Amino acid sequence: MSDDLPPRPPHHEGRVRAVEGRLNWLRASVLGANDGVVSTAGLVVGVAGATQHRGTLLTAGLAGLLAGSISMAAGEYVSVCAQRDAQRAALETERRELREHPEEGLNALAAELRQRGLSRGVARAAARQLSRKDALKAHARVELGIDPEALTNPWAAAVASFLSFTAGALLPLLLMVLPPAGWRLPVTVASVLVALVLTGWSGARLGGATVRPAVVRNVAGGALAMAVTYAVGRLLGSAV
Predict the structure, then answer these.
(1) Which of 6, 172, 194, 239 is most buried, judging by how many CB atoms fall within 10 Å of its CB?
(2) pLDDT the model gives residue 25
(3) 213 φ, ψ to 5°?
(4) To 5 degrees, how large is the angle CA 60–CA 36–CA 83?
(5) Do the domain assignments include residue 51?
(6) Is residue 98 a part of any domain in this protein?
C-alpha cells in the first residue's frame, strides 16, 4: 500500500491564496475606514467646538478627508513598494544560490522541513520532491515565507487605502454638516461611536482576535480623540 497522500484538487492552492488575499484586503480596508472615521471625526468635532458655521465645518472636513486619504494612499504605496523590493531581492538571492549551490539549497530546505516536525528521511525526500517540481517556489515559501506568485501590487494597495479612508471619513463629515446646528454634534458623536463598534468588531473577526477588547479599545480611542479635539476647539474658540 502506498503512503503517498492523494493529490490536491487542481485549483486548491490557487483558491487558498485567493481567500488569504481577500482576507488581507478586507482587514486593510476595515483599518483604513476606521482611520478615516476617527481622524475626520476628531477634526470636525474639534472645529465644531469653536464654530457651528456650516461652511467652515465643510471646508475643514473636506481638507482633512483629502489630506488623510492621500496620505494613507501614499504611505501604503511606499510601504508595499519597499516590501515588494525586499521580497524580490530575497528571491533573486535564493535563485542565485540554488543555481550555484543546488546541493546546499537542498540541505537547507530539508533542515527547514525537519524543524517543522518531519523525520530526517521524510524531510530529505520531501525536499527532493518539492525541488524537482519548482525549487525556487519551494525554498521561497518554506524558508522565506514568500509566495513568488502572489507579491502585493502597490497600486492596488494605495487605491484600496484611499477608498477605505474616504468611505470612513464621509460619515462624520456629512453628519456634521447636514443636520440642523443643534443636532450636529450629538448625532455625529453617536454615529461615530456606533461606526467604531462595527469596525472594531469587523477587524477582530477578520483577524481572529477576541471581539470585546478590540471593540472597547476602538471606541475608547475614538471617544478620547473627539473629546480632546472638542475641548481644544472650545478653548481656542472662546479665546478668539
Answers:
(1) 172
(2) 67
(3) -60, -40
(4) 125
(5) yes
(6) yes
Give the residue among 67, 56, 44, 42 at the shortest CA–CA distance from 165: 67
Instruction: Name residue 141's amino acid.
Output: R
Is residue 80 in some structural domain? yes
Cα–Cα distance between 229 and 234 in angstroms, integer? 9
pLDDT for the residue numbered 222 = 92
Report which secondary-structure segment, H or E, holds 189.
Answer: helix 181-207
* pLDDT 10s digits, 85-125: 988 888 888 788 778 788 887 777 788 788 877 788 887 78
User: 167, 208, 215: which is closest to 20 by C-alpha?
Assistant: 208
Beta strands in 66-180 (DSSP E): none
Q: Are 207 and 31 in contact (CB under 8 A)?
A: no
Residues 223/37, Cβ–Cβ less than 8 Å: no
Domain count, the chain: 1
In a domain, 172, yes or no: yes
Residue found under cell 472615521:
37
Q: Residue 57: give the domain boundaries.
A: 35-239
Nearest in space to 76 (alpha carbons), one of 40, 39, 32: 32
